[in-house]
Hints:
Blueprint: H1 10-15, H2 22-47, H3 53-99, H4 101-114, H5 119-141, H6 153-177, H7 183-206, H8 210-235
Helix pairs in contact: 2-3, 2-6, 2-7, 2-8, 3-4, 3-5, 3-6, 4-5, 6-7, 7-8
Amino acid sequence: MSKQTPTKPLDDYLDNHFIHKSNWLRAAVLGANDGILSTASIAIGVAAASTTREPIILATLAGLVAGALSMAAGEYVSVSSQTDLETADIDREKKELLDMPELELQRLAEIYEQRGLKKETALQVAKEMTEHDALAAHIRDELGINEITQANPIQAALASGGSFTLGGIFPLLVVYFLPVPNMEYKLYGTSILFLAILGAIAAKTGGSSIVRAIVRITFWGTIAMGLTALVGYLFGVNV
């Protein structure tokens, strides 16, 4: 007698897909990347124009606080706008299902037919999905909204603001503890290291190429910090 392989619940298989992490991972990586890059860039710009530690610390700390609050607020407003659009579309879909159910059924069948089902099969599937939960079927298959892609403003704001703060702490520690001479070069080197680690963690969590992520994040980080350092050198007042 052959042994049957134990089967996992469907939810367990779904949880293994990286797309389920897309919302919070995007906000967290964006926040941490900006935290490191923005804070380090500000510190590099001031360090290139200063010979003392105090102005660098002050500018770095101000950039960290302002950046974290700005990231959280911006992400909340942006994702809230997306949520408003989704809610408006869902409300309109509810009205259409009440006013013209036959047309909505046909529209759902056409969607399934475009995805590869035969005309008769598509219509049968549309009928069964409509009988089960018409609104849910249209939200998912017509509007493209589901629990994975649906916006969460609070989650996005906390992830962005918190990760920005976490990322920005590293350049602040460098400014506070390392010797002031050639501080801009020390900030650049350590920040590139922090960005590379962040890129590797993000790629590992998201299941993508670690090398590609590291190259991408360090390349753009070098450009940003290099341009900021140039501004500091050009407009430096040696404070």
